[in-house]
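Researcher: Here's a chain I'd like modeled. Treat it as a single chain, no partners, no ligands.
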Amino acid sequence: MILGIGCDIIESERIERLLTETEKTGRIFTESERKYCDGKGKERTASYAARFAAKEAAAKAFGCGIGPVAWTEIETVKETDGAPYFRFYGKAEDLMKKHSDSKMHLSVSHEKNYAVAYAIWEGGEHA
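Model: Modeled as a single isolated chain. Structure tokens:
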């Protein structure tokens, strides 16, 4: 059963400006996310933008937005085959545990000017 759906789109230029403010970057992205994105060379900004959109999409799927759930409680990582998925911590992890066998699906895409992410929170007997 679908518990929630979230979608977000972000302009890469907005993330480029954010990346000049180290203290904000540390409040939004986990150390693992920063290490990954900083190693992407010219795709650095796009990688950060995709993760930003993913965090927003997950918070929307939870139905609460960012605030009740902190940015760094939602982490975007990749499977060995490159497929993105979430790791949750703190309050976000607690939300996931409220529903038996729940999982959140993630799809991200980016191009020169924008990144977009979709999150579908699935739980219950059909998860």
